[in-house]
Design goal:
- With 583 residues, the chain is of the alpha/beta class.
- It has a nine-stranded mixed sheet with strand order 6-5-4-7-8-3-1-2-9, sandwiched between helices.
- Helices cover 27% and strands 8% of the residues.
- It has one domain: Histone deacetylase domain (Arginase, Chain A).
- Bound molecules: zinc ion.
- Zinc ion binds at residues 206-208, 293, 295, 331-332.
Length: 583
């Protein structure tokens, strides 16, 4: 079924037309004064929303198109300092974390070839939750390219906040797909941040456990992961219990906040703010990656919480107020009219703009008609709240106790240390040419559109002949600390046999009540998969794109020292922790 709204293009329709009694939002026309607010960069890979997982699949990239239409419709593009189309990630960039065989498979498999590749499809956990669809690999490269570009810009210090709603695919593993996720753009972006940032805090408010990111950094003390999710042991992915707190050097650097069905705004915000404030105080991150999965909203097709868009956005606002460099990505979210509203509202929160409750008119009005074109429709109260004040207090007290282990932990670099990659530079002589290339490293992943397009010709403003060639980073790919690329699969850093990864299918098709674009049919419930006990990939990039601007290292910031800090944590090599994973 094709919606009527698809018959016309976004750019062919006026943004603001009379909707009678519903009124219309007024576009924001003032430009923000430079420096008065954080610099916000917004990444939208052109065409990313046109991909399609399949008729009955709940993951709809079209939600990205809706989000973008609302963001532009509200005139938020006038509040955002930088809007980027972005080059897609390269295969080498994906293999900074993922196994070569897996990426090679993704690059080759198509709906036409999948019958010949059935065994590999099973090996790499594709097929059901993670179907093979047209241009799958391009889709992965697009959303990952945007997260990497955002991370680079944050590392370069040329933006304060980077937004990529197309990213946030937190379930993907090193060597296999999981839960609608193929490539883990978050892990790759964090690896990029670690080249400059001593400590990265990852926060995940998707209703599902952020297992892929947790797993990647489970043994690292430089990345602290905090996931708020529904946990029953049965609910996908089946992991994320309160006492899963990291391993080895990473012990205590992983927090899980297991919640039950129906949690409301007040309870969620209370536990979120308490845990995040305590975590930031204890861990002192130098940058934050925030995954804003919108399936934690009330009325989500796959979710079971009762959060309003305002409360979801308040989590974003709370994190923003710590004024740390922040990469904000999307994630889950399966009632797409609410996903797009939520991420639009959160864009406004991040740029510090107040937007009216009346949605702007777009060609996608049909999605919002039943809720009177409101940005904040009532979403709460649909599911009984199984949480209690006492159960939540037990969680926050337990987490506060866990965070005590962080205070003074000898492995944590608590000083502000210049996050350089001197260790890499010592390993190799760079030519002048290479060094010149390095200067543009931080900008290599994106292309600034100097002329922000008018709202009603948004796509016309994207330069179709955008200079992809010059955007491709020519930075050398070197192997971390002299290692050759390994093709072995990662090892599980946890006890075996606890059913990592494929615990449950992410969705069942038998509760199909969605309002989405083309999916109103009902199919049989999905089979649940057997938990897999074989080793899951830990983050040990076999190769890293090691390029850096030496000049940028000259001013490492106040209080910095390139030497070891008093704790003995040697920071110049951002990948040092990876060696600890070898043994
Ligand atoms: Zn989710």
């Amino acid at each position: 079924m094709v919606r009527t709204s698809q018959a016309s293009t976004f750019s062919s329709s006026p943004y603001f037309f009379d909707r009678g009694s519903h009124g219309t939002a007024q576009p924001i026309t003032e430009r923000v004064a430079p420096h008065s607010r954080p610099i916000v960069s917004y990444y939208y890979p052109k065409g990313v929303g046109a991909h399609h997982y399949g008729e009955r699949h709940p993951m709809k990239p079209h939600r990205l198109t809706l989000t973008n239409a609302l963001v532009m419709g509200y005139g938020l593009d006038r509040q955002i300092q930088n809007i980027y189309d972005v080059r897609s990630a390269t295969q080498a960039e994906l293999e900074a974390y993922h196994d070569h065989e897996y990426i090679d498979f993704l690059s080759r498999v198509t709906p036409q070839t999948q019958s010949d590749m059935r065994q590999m499809i099973d090996t790499f956990n594709c097929g059901e939750d993670c179907p093979i669809f047209a241009d799958l690999y391009d889709f992965c490269r697009m959303y990952t390219g945007a997260s990497l570009a955002g991370a680079r810009k944050l590392s370069a210090g040329t933006t304060d906040i980077a937004i990529n709603w197309s990213g946030g695919l937190h379930h993907a593993k090193r060597g296999e797909a999981s839960g609608f996720c193929y490539v883990n753009d978050i892990v790759l972006a964090i690896l990029e941040l670690l080249r400059y940032h001593p400590r990265v805090l990852y926060i995940d408010i998707d209703i599902h456990h952020g297992d892929g990111v947790e797993l990647a950094f489970y043994q690292s003390n430089r990345v602290m992961t905090v996931s708020f999710h529904k946990y029953t042991g049965e609910f996908f992915p089946g992991t994320g219990k309160l006492d899963d707190n990291g391993h080895g050097l990473g012990k205590h650097f992983c927090l899980n906040v297991p919640l039950q069905d129906g949690i409301d705004d007040e309870m969620y915000l209370s536990v979120f703010k308490t845990v995040i404030e305590d975590t930031i105080t204890a861990f002192r991150p130098t940058s934050i990656v925030l995954q804003c999965g919108a399936d934690s909203l009330g009325c989500d097709r796959l979710g079971a919480f009762n959060l309003s868009i305002a409360a979801h956005g308040e989590c974003v606002n709370f994190v923003r107020k710590f004024n740390l460099p922040m990469l904000v990505v999307g994630g889950g979210g399966y009632t797409i009219k609410n996903v797009s509203r939520c991420w639009t509202y959160e864009t406004s929160v991040l740029v510090g703009a107040v937007i009216p409750n009346e949605l702007p008119a777009t060609v996608y009005d049909a999605f919002f008609k039943d809720s009177q074109f409101k940005l904040h429709p009532p979403l709460t109260g649909k599911v009984d709240n199984q949480n209690s004040a006492a159960s939540l207090q037990r969680i926050t007290v337990s987490i506060r106790n866990k965070l005590r282990y962080l205070q003074g932990a000898p492995s944590v670099a608590m000083q502000e240390i210049p996050p350089d990659i001197q260790g890499f530079l010592e390993d190799e002589e760079r030519t002048i040419e290479e060094r010149e290339e390095e200067i543009s490293t931080a900008m290599a992943g994106d292309q600034r559109f100097e002329d922000i397009p008018a709202r009603n010709d948004y796509y016309d403003g994207w330069k179709d002949n955008d200079p992809v060639e010059i955007m491709v980073p020519t930075t050398p790919v070197v192997f971390a600390r002299g290692r050759a690329p390994s093709t072995r699969r990662g090892r599980a850093g946890r006890p075996r046999g606890r059913g990592r990864g494929r615990g449950r299918p992410l969705y069942r098709d038998d509760d199909d009540d969605d309002d989405d674009d083309d999916n109103d049919s009902i199919s049989a419930p999905r089979k649940s998969r057997k938990p897999k006990s074989r080793g899951r990939g830990r983050a040990k990039p076999v190769s890293v794109a090691a390029s850096v601007d030496r000049e940028s290292l000259k001013d490492p910031g106040p209080g910095s020292s390139p030497e070891k800090d008093s704790s003995g944590f040697n920071t110049p090599d951002p990948y040092a922790f990876l060696d600890d994973l070898e043994d």
